[in-house]
Amino acid sequence: MSENRTHLLSRRQWLQAATALSAIGATRVLWPAWLPRLAFASEGVKGDTLVCIFLRGGADALNMIVPFGDDNYYKARPLLAIGQPDSSDSVKALALDDFFGLNPDMRPIHELLMNGHMTVIHAAGTPNVSRSHFEAMDLMERGTNGAEAGIGSGWLGRHLMATSAEGDSPLRAIGWSDKLPTSLRGYVSANALRSIADFHLHGDTRQTDQMAATLSAMYQESDAPLNLSADATFQALELVKQIEVDKYRPANGARYDDSDLGRGLKQTAALIKAGAGLEVACVDHGNYDTHVAQGRSDGLLSGLLISLSQNLRAFHDDLLDYMDKITVVVMSEFGRRVQENGGGGTDHGHGGAMYIMSPHVARMPVIAQWPGLNSDFLDNGDLQITTDYRDVLSELLTNRTANTDLSIVFPGHTPRPVGATLKG
Amino acid sequence: MKTQLSRRAFLTTLAGGTILAASGCSNVIDRLAQPDLPKELWLPSGANRHPIAHLLNRAAYGPRPGQLEKVQQLGREKWIKQQLDYKDIEDDALDWRLRRYDTLNWQAQDLMSLNGSDDFGGGDKDLVAYELAQMTLVRAVFSERQLYEVMVGFWTDHFSIYQFKNDVLYFKTVDDREVIRPHALGKFRDLLKASAHSPAMLHYLDNTENEKSHPNENYAREIMELHTLGVHGGYTEQDIQEVARCLTGWGKNDDGEFEYHSAWHDDGEKTVLGHVIPAGGGKDDGDKVLEILVNHPSTSKFVCTKLVQRFIADDPPQNIIDDCVTTWQSTDGDIRAVLRTLLNHPDFDSAPPKLKRPFELMASLLRATNANYDGNRDLIDLLDRMGHRPFAWATPDGYPDNAVGWANNMLPRINLALDLVNDELSGVKIDLWDIAERMDSERNAEKLLHNFGRLVLARDLTLNESAALWNFATNGTGKKPNLSGDKGRGQMLQTLGLLLASPAFQWR
User: Do the Cβ atoms of A203 and B231 come within 8 Å?
Assistant: First the structure.
């Protein structure tokens, strides 16, 4: 990858070049049209930019990271199982090691997994036994196992609070959706954006600036935390106005698709390259609730996996020169039942998988204390959880961000090392 | 009790066409049901918010134009008393508005029959879930029984049930009607008992699966942690297991009604919070548990703390909690008595700011502008995007009621007010010029700004507010907008929108 790096100017180089050139009035020549000339310092970011992708609906980890070395997998899924890598099956896993293989629809990330740019933690998830989507998602996003009621904030919200400092970017935390993801609750400057273009004041568009100035003047005198929150909002509006994301062109031939995930990742990439001070971005993907017609290479899951892996790869390639300071984590509220159901699908299960993309991961495609799929080892018919999702996230925050106090991020939880993310 | 329209009866009526005809008339009904404004609006002045406005922001969903004067004349104590005797308050206009919702009075059995069927041409589950949420917003905006609605909201959060877990939504409609609403201003004991017999609650918290050979502790845990004692209320894991045993067999039947399954019940001896419950008690075991929980001193402290947090401050003052607990204990948990203590408390008027949650912000905006809202789904979707759709908090602890939980994502809060004045909220109509005339301000922009400020903030604008807003109104020129022309009127409308989007309106 290093040969590519020389072809790309870093943000800092851009700034230096721009400063030098602007003195002679030639800035516009070199500056990409979409990239705002911000005084805003990317130096403000205190660790990696964290991108959290949530696979909604309970993604079937067993058909994504296939335990082809476990006979019970094939016994439990006569119709849906993905073939062993060296089998004659038309749909066969791409070997990751001698036990796990990757669903062939996820081929775009195979190379990343094999080369130490990505790793999977299997049999991971929340120890809470809820098999209700919403309850499980909610608990996971709030970073609690349910024992601590009244935690209205999310784990990312608390992480952002714990690491906030003067001069933080107003675009420090974004959820790319209509509504603020639960994980970002609690941090006053977090914003929900459907798209950068949609983030604007309503009302008479000819007077937007005057309106923002009027509101800003009034909010400055408001009680906390409203003054802080509003201040961040007006700054974000100002910043967003300068970014023309329509004109953004991904680098290195990267191609995002037109899904929520593709659009979210593309805009995240644009903000990162613009040095907008983004620290946390949340994107949702899909409806992974494949009770029926899940299929192998032709069902509901296939299309989702193609989109997921294509967009992950696009993001990686697009940001090749920036990945050193980016960590992507992918999770879902739970995995699916080991035994396939009578409708060609799978029902709600327990253990799932988490994916981390970063050059600073263990050089292991799959990290798992594999509990086994023998019925004796199942948790009510489901894959057991041997790694608490909070352990994965705690390690990630410790090694990749400036957070030194995890007790407020995951209250009541004592994290154990997973060995997935590395410092440096 | 109103007669309840069965599904069959409803379909018959539908076939007769009367409901279709009626739905075409809903605009007319809305107009007839819209509250009258006084010819002249009384406008409070002074640097501090008028205390009655403070009361109406906390104990109601914000003042309507003209309401302040009425409550002032009546006297605050009388108003509180009236509001507590809510059944005596006439609410016919509201009832008319609620007629458009078909499923509110259905029995669980009828609601369940919608499952999977598609008689209405569009998602039946949606219909049930939306109608309950729409009703809740319409009531908050239009009901005369404001304190009652606020308390229904409080208990809805306290006994929070997530509508979208499995089939819970069919039972939640019944829970709202037969558990929360009948007891919202009654005795806490009756409310807790009704909730413990509610199929919605038992289903939501998995007690319908609580069987002696496979005990499910979910409801047993939450009834102590969230409904009665509070997390530090002095129970142990052992108590949770014992309460779960007492509640084995409490569930529902196929018609969606409460049913006790004796075959599922663990009939051995149990010990709950030090009380021995002898073997062979059957369903009584659960009833005894409820009695133990209601009488436990932690319950009054926990619930009173939450009430003070709702009405007074995120960080509830101990002296007010103590006074409420004293009342609770001397009245056997009479919610009305506790509210009387709370709302008449000498420290009530000096309570620190409380941030409106999106639902309260929306309801108070519509009230403050005498908006006509046709009860449509779009505002529910908007609340959903703001993170505060009624009955949609996934976990049993209910929506947070503090500033930290809501102070982010400000843009939608600001845009809500701007959309309102720009006629961009679907199904919502306001007429600020009508209000202007009633303040004798329709011809004078400066007077209009200051009077509208007094109307919606119940105080004079601060120097900062009036400078910022007037600067906007005049485009920085200091030249008054001419209110006889469209341009000047348009500019003033935007200015008033900014006033409604201002920080002062974000606080309860």
Answer: no
